[in-house]
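Take a record.
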Amino acid sequence: MTSSHGSRPRHLSSSPFAPATEAVVEVFEVGDRVCHDLYGLGTVTALDTHAVTVNFGEQSVRIKPPYAKLQHL
């Protein structure tokens, strides 16, 4: 069931369930220092509409949103 406003049905104020939260996608810029749970410390080297490229020293990795394992330092 979808609503006219998007892919989720409208949340009723009388509902005993909490409304679904939207995933927050972080914004990165070239030069940002970041930490990844798997790759470690790195620097953002490139941005595009669908991913960020991070240099982790010996390798560069292209990471797609929602960047669950990537944090700003």
